[in-house]
Automatic annotation (TrEMBL):
<feature type="domain" description="Methyltransferase type 11">
    <location>
        <begin position="45"/>
        <end position="123"/>
    </location>
</feature>
<dbReference type="Pfam" id="PF08241">
    <property type="entry name" value="Methyltransf_11"/>
</dbReference>
<protein>
    <recommendedName>
        <fullName>Methyltransferase type 11 domain-containing protein</fullName>
    </recommendedName>
</protein>
<dbReference type="InterPro" id="IPR013216">
    <property type="entry name" value="Methyltransf_11"/>
</dbReference>
<dbReference type="InterPro" id="IPR029063">
    <property type="entry name" value="SAM-dependent_MTases_sf"/>
</dbReference>
């Protein structure tokens, strides 16, 4: 599927991507995990780069992003992103020291082909930040917006499938801090009021796959429970819980010779 701005995945970033960068800022805790996974790499490929979150500033980064809407939101201090998609990377074998793909593999049209390309052009580690669809139920949002969680569960590939293509990998659950700056769904585990903000919801593509009626019902139910205190009676402890271990997962593949 391709949209007017070149989006190659299943989400229309022409419609939902305009304010993405304002809500999806890099979270330092997550950034540190990715930087550690990249090791001493000097050249890094970022596939599905979006607005540039998590790109290291002390490396030579080449960014690939199909959506013009997302490319236009990259800050001036980052390199310009090249239009393109994971399935057809225009680089020779082993061209980069390392590669990264954050919150993107669930949108690739051909996951296996994209992962094979990623491994082909990278001589060192490949770091994939994704979510485990089997763990999404840990998040309380499932009670209010079951359709959103079900959408995410359908879209995110099983970690085993990623490992099958990339080869030997190590996986780590990434704990999410309470004040997480990157506004993906679970980032608001202790800040439920954020889901009442339509722009915050729009920065999470899963909301764009449900109907307007389903979205309105979910928001109304959450708003009512926040007003009555019912949400806090069940989940209020999360407001001060420093970290949440949800579905966020970092998968790192090293080259076979390692």
């Amino acid at each position: 599927m391709a949209f007017d701005d070149g989006s190659a995945g299943d989400a229309d970033y022409t419609a939902i991507g305009a304010d993405y960068a304002a809500y999806r800022q890099p979270e330092p805790v997550i950034a540190a995990k990715i930087l550690e996974a990249l090791g001493g790499a000097r050249t890094v490929l970022n596939v599905g780069a979006g607005a540039g979150s998590y790109e290291p500033l002390d490396r030579a980064v080449t960014a690939i992003e199909p959506s013009a809407t997302m490319r236009s939101q990259r800050p001036a201090w980052l390199s310009r992103a090249i239009p393109g998609s994971a399935e057809s990377l225009p680089f020779p074998d082993g061209h980069f020291d390392a590669a990264m793909a954050t919150f993107t593999v669930h949108q690739w049209q051909d996951l296996d082909a994209g992962l094979r390309q990623l491994r082909r052009v990278t001589r060192g580690p490949v770091a994939v930040l994704t979510c485990d669809p089997q763990l999404l139920h840990r998040f309380w949002l499932a009670e209010y917006a079951a359709e959103v969680i079900a959408t995410e569960a359908r879209r995110y590939p099983a970690p085993q499938r990623i490992a099958r293509v990339l080869g030997e990998v190590r996986s780590e659950t990434v704990e999410i801090p309470l004040d997480c700056r990157d506004g993906f769904g679970e980032a608001y585990y202790g800040r439920p009021e954020m889901f009442l903000d339509p722009l915050a919801r729009r920065a999470n593509s899963a909301w764009s796959f449900i109907t307007a009626e389903q979205e309105a019902a979910a928001v109304r139910s959450l708003a009512d429970d926040l007003a009555s205190g019912a949400w806090d009676a069940r989940y209020g402890a999360l407001r001060s819980q420093p970290f949440f271990a949800g579905s966020l997962l970092l998968i790192v593949s090293e080259p076979a010779e390692h």
